[in-house]
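A further point concerns the way the authors explain their paired sequence and structure data. An entry of this sort, consisting of the sequence and the corresponding backbone structure tokens, reads as follows:
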Amino acid sequence: MREENKDYTAYRESEEYQRLKYIRRQKRRKQVMIARICVFGGGALFLLAIILLIYNFVIAPNKESKPVSGDESNILKEEEVKYFVIQERPVIDVQLLTPNEYSRPGIATETIENIVVHYTANPGTTAQQNRDFFEGLKDSHETSVSSHFVIGLEGEIIQCIPTIERAYASNQRNYNTVSIECCHMDETGKFNDGTYDSLVELCAWLCCKFNLQAEDVIRHYDVTGKACPKYFVDNQDEWENFIYAIDQYMDKNSVEVTKEEWEGVYGEGETVVTPTEEASIEFSE
């Protein structure tokens, strides 16, 4: 046994043993290195896959949906926008309210996105009476309410506030909407023919003014859930017929014009002037 141990010890100290030991050590190092590469490489590939998923499904869609900025954006807008005007302007009696914090605060509107239809909820009253009620709030301080336009029982249209200014009509949407109050004869809130026809004409006129579609005319109900205008909330089919009537009126009575011609009809000042007590009167239409 001792001789065998001596032989084994001698073998371990031999050059051949040391060479084989070195080879085994190098082999193990390579295996460890390969294992590390697999672990870290796999982790890196997994991370890259996550990044690509986030980019493709979150970042890229949002990036594509954002408008192009700078000069390129202006070029695209000029190419895409078409301008239309209604050939016959509605008859509008401009009776602007006195600037005051209760009905005409003189705060500028932003880009108009919707036309909002309301009903007065006081049967039998006239457009003039409703306009005068708004005017009287500067003295009574009873509440804060108003509208850009009021349409009466005979189809008369009174403008109370310039469309570049906010009215107190559509709650959280006052900043980017134009409001129209409509008179009615009874508790049903149904508009008579004169009121209805003028409402169609005014909505069509305003849609062309702000480059909107008939579908961009909405109810107060669509903003807050309030039953206003009551008849059009209670009768959804009648509301859809009304939107169709606006679309047909625009189709039959509007013509495409150049930007310069459009500005000549509607006036650039309505959309770019920040109103003050003086300027808001000057740029009423």
In short: The chain has two domains: 2-61, 79-282.
